[in-house]
Design goal:
Blueprint lengths: L1 H16 L4 H5 L18 H7 L15 H29 L4 H9 L3 H29 L6 H23 L2
Helix pairs in contact: 4-6, 6-7
């Protein structure tokens, strides 16, 4: 009952404040015109902006790299690298004429520094991606989220991933 009384009171207030002449006094004329973009044949986006004297956005040239952004970019790159390794190994198993033992024997014939560099190149993306993934899991449970802790865990993760990659290289 109270809701009906309140609703009717609101209607009366709105109707009393409404004047039939009010829309005519406040009316504005709006003219809609279609605007055709001036597009010259063969003009590129950059050429058009130069002709119109628009400044070019500096984008990445003014961005100061931070540890957090670089680790994020590297995490994505190592993930793509690992996917590429898996794809190449799978396709290689299908296409190459010999089995894996033949190619491993060929790799063992490489000299020390070359073999070390090759093994480290294969091991580091795995070590980095795995340790940074553990770091992200800690973030997911709400740990190490202050700026100081984020940077400290970033440096620790870099050291640990380097150590794991080196250890895998010596296997």
């Amino acid at each position: 009952m109270a809701a009906i009384i309140l609703r009717n009171a609101c209607r009366r207030t709105l109707l009393q404040s409404y004047s039939p002449a009010a829309p005519l006094l406040a009316a504005r004329t709006i003219v809609l015109r279609s605007v055709q973009p001036e597009n010259r044949q063969g003009e590129s986006h950059d050429d058009r902006n130069a002709r119109l004297k628009r400044p070019q956005s500096p984008h990445l040239t003014i961005y100061a790299p931070q540890l957090t952004s670089m680790l994020s970019i590297t995490h994505r790159m190592t993930g793509m690298t690992l996917a590429g390794y898996a794809t190449l190994l799978g396709l290689g198993a299908l296409v190459l004429p010999h089995d894996a033992n033949h190619y491993l024997t060929m790799l063992e014939g490489l000299n020390g520094p070359t073999l070390f560099a090759l093994k480290f190149t294969l091991a580091y993306p795995f070590a980095f991606h795995a340790t940074n993934g553990v770091r992200h899991l800690f973030w997911d449970i709400g740990k190490f989220l202050s700026i100081k802790e984020v940077y400290n865990t970033g440096y620790v993760m870099l050291l640990v991933s380097g150590a794991i990659a080196t250890g895998l290289t010596f296997l």
